[in-house]
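Pipeline run #58 for the internal structure catalog. This entry was flagged by the ingest filter as a single-chain record with no existing model, so it goes straight to prediction. Upstream metadata was stripped on purpose; only the residue string is passed forward. Reviewer on rotation: M.T. Logging verbosity set to normal.
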Amino acid sequence: MTLQSTDMTQITAPTRRRPPFSWTRLSYVAATLALIAGTGVLEGYELYLASSILAYAIAAMGLNVLMGYNGQISLGHGAFFAIGAYTAAICIDRFTVPFALTPIIAGVAGMGAGWLIGKPALRLEGVYLALATFGLAIATPTVLRSDLFSEWTGGVQGLFLLINPAPDWAGLDLDQSIYVAVVAYFLLFAFLTLRLVRGLNGKAWIATRDNPIAARAMGFDVTRAKTRAFVFSVLACSVGGALQAVAVQFVAPDSFPFFLSISLFTAVVVGGLCSPLVGPLLGAVFIVMVPNVTEEIWQGGNWAIYGGVIIAIVGIQPRGLAGMLAWIRDKITTHATER
């Protein structure tokens, strides 16, 4: 038996295919560059508004993970927003911690509080968890006003924060310094959120939300999944609160009423559930900008317009503003393909 020789010159290495062009990645890069460019384009009050929107967007990212991906309803995350804000304020006022580091400390403090509160609270489900967390939001302003903590919190009068800008070599004023720090934390949480929801944690959260019994059968620890989602949402809210306190340079109990929790809830639903980045950002723009716009349209009746807009958005598109953008994008894409 003879073996036929093989012409080795005809054997070629398989060609590596280039990954398809991703409009999503391009949009992320463009959005990042736009945020960075805002440092030189915006000024004064515009920088403050942009910083506030991004701070609320960070908080909405965390709450979106809890509500959208894990299916847990919370009406009390304004309390954790307040914990983050007051932690940052105390660090700046009493210990002269650089403002850019205070969100890290606030996040650790918020995670500790979230773990202590979330462990027993997550035994409840649905409306019972919503009511329990809503009770936390109602109690928070009263606790902040209490004389027991007034030495640290400033009581009813609150705390004014003396914040130093970036070093002279950076060439940034105070507003620009705060905005740059907020953008950095926003990009960090955008990265973390995408990694979590697209990884094993995201699968566990969705499985727990859709069918807890099936999730247990698949090997997911349902209790641990709920706790992780709750703690991450608290971390994001605490960091967002710290950044908002830095942007405003003032904290007081009246700045964190129970309506703040409703506003964060609104940002998540109106922005779009299960939209990890676009939804929270659009929701933050909504809760920050729309009340100011409606006040100019109808003084004294601005909340009537605000409520009407919410009803219209949810009625037209249950997936919120992010769903509207996706619908418009699909229509444009379909029309371009047909042509």
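catalog note: The longest strand covers residues 159-160.
catalog note: The radius of gyration is 23 Å.
status: ready for reviewer M.T.
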